[in-house]
Amino acid sequence: MRETVLKWGSQSTTWLYLLLAYPVIDFVLRKILPIPVVSSFWDEALLLILLGFTFFAFISGTRTMPAIKHLLVAFLVLGIALTVTDMSNWDASVEGFRSVYQYILAFLMGFYLLQSMEQLDRLMKVLALVGFLAALVGVAQVVLGVKTPESWVQEGEAVTTRAFSFVTSPNVLGSYMALIAPVAAGLFMKAKSLKEKGLWAIVTVVTILAMLLTGSRGAWFALAFSVFICCYIWKRKVALFLVLIGIIGAVVLYFVPETVPVVGKISNRIFTLFTKDYFESSMNGGRLGRWGEAYDKMRVEPLFGVGLGHHGGAVASRHFGTIYSDSYFFKSLAEYGLIGIIMLLGLVGQMLRYAIKAIRGMTGSPYFFPLLGLFGGLFAVALHNLVENIFEVPFMALYFWLFGGFLCALYVDQKQTKRW
User: What would the mean pLDDT of 346-352 be, rounded to a whole number?
Assistant: First the structure.
């Protein structure tokens, strides 16, 4: 028994599995079995252990990071500089720094800890199954009529029950499902046996259903556009066909009565966006108004922003009483200024660019569709950050950077003719 535990503990993959179970472990330790100290710091301890494995993988010199390393270093230096320039609000600056860079470390973990394509395939399966559990809870909430907190239901809308599972909010669950559903669909395409195809088909359908039941319009649109991009990478004719289906579907959806179960609520959520009342409420204290406030903060300090943890997020809310920006990128625009937001967008864009190259290098491989699905999920999460503070949620930020690091490592290994 002792030897078995030591064997499992000495493998980085074991700790990666625990990281993929983050939302479940965190919910249990914080809400069901709270343990003093452990409940608050278990995730930091897990990251430190994985950083240890990452350090040893780095010094072994088996993989060299490509040009993105220059952006990573520059972005880190900028963050340190912004942190030390506001000593009067040192606590907020340090906490703001940690809330960003602690999770970007997962990119290094993914890049240096990838061992094989088989390992990545197993990690994607664990990711999808944990997400499936969250989806089941979310669907059950709606079926059982669990009341959604009023702060997540907009006045005048037909939706009063939104799935939120055991994560932070319906919008976070929507983004989570937008990550999981394409991965599960990719695993379905790869599966050979009827039993395995059935499993991944169920996971795909349930996660999509859960995402629809969250009422998160940002997640819906992000996933829809992401699916289009994935199809475009795969076969352009399929992407164009999807556009046609989407146009027809939008027209049909417009005429669906609100009384129709599920579909009527989806229609109400979508077309409420185009009403005068929504625009006015959004401008007056809503999402559009908050974006305007973030932009105004940037105009005051256009190059370097107002400082990390000073606007539009959880840290700023605790220290300065500011409201959320409802956009991680607008929040970053205010805090980092133009230089920082360009670096951040550059990091995300470069990472996704490497991912596309890695996926195209796997054309014809059994792993092509799971990798394409993984890219689709990451792309959807990145898009969703345009309208939500998704990267403020620890497990979503960790998943994004971790699997982005895996895909970057895959690209590097392909470039160095180390084919999986």
Answer: 97
- The amino acid present at 214, given as its one-letter code, is T
The C-alpha atoms of residue 148 and residue 138 are separated, in whole angstroms, by 11
φ, ψ for residue 193 (rounded to 5)?
-80, 150
What mean pLDDT is predicted for residues 373-396?
A: 97
Q: Distance of CA 128 to CAs 46, 124, 226, 418, Å?
A: 21, 6, 17, 27
pLDDT of residue 31: 87
How far is residue 33's CA from residue 119's CA, in Å, rounded to a whole number? 31
Q: If residue 82 lies in a helix (H) or strand (E), which one and from where to where?
A: helix 68-84
Residue 153 predicted with pLDDT over 70? no
- Which long-range contacts link 71-77 to residues 24+ away (Cβ below 8 Å)? 71/343, 71/346, 71/347, 71/350, 72/104, 72/107, 72/347, 74/343, 75/104, 75/340, 75/343, 75/344, 75/347, 76/101
303 three-class SS = coil
Distances (CA, A) of 296 to 117, 289, 389: 46, 11, 18
CB 199 within 8 A of CB 244: no
The answer to whether residues 14 and 21 touch, using CB atoms and an 8 Å cutoff, is no
Whether the CB-CB separation of 82 and 308 falls below 8 Å is answered with: yes
> 254: which residues sit within 8 A by CB, 6+ positions away?
267, 271
Q: Please say whether the beta carbons of 201 and 57 come within 8 A.
A: no
Query: Residue 2: what pLDDT?
Result: 65
How far are the Cα atoms of 251, 254, 400 from residue 248, in angstroms, in the given order? Answer: 5, 10, 33
Phi then psi dihedrals of residue 404, to 5 deg = -65, -40
In this prediction, residues 278-287 reach a mean pLDDT of 86
Q: How far apart are CA 135 and CA 177, in angstroms?
A: 7
Counting beta carbons within 10 angstroms of the beta carbon of residue 254, is it exposed (0 to 12), middle (13 to 18) or buried (19 or more)?
exposed
Q: Give the Cα separation of 68 and 203 in Å (integer).
A: 34
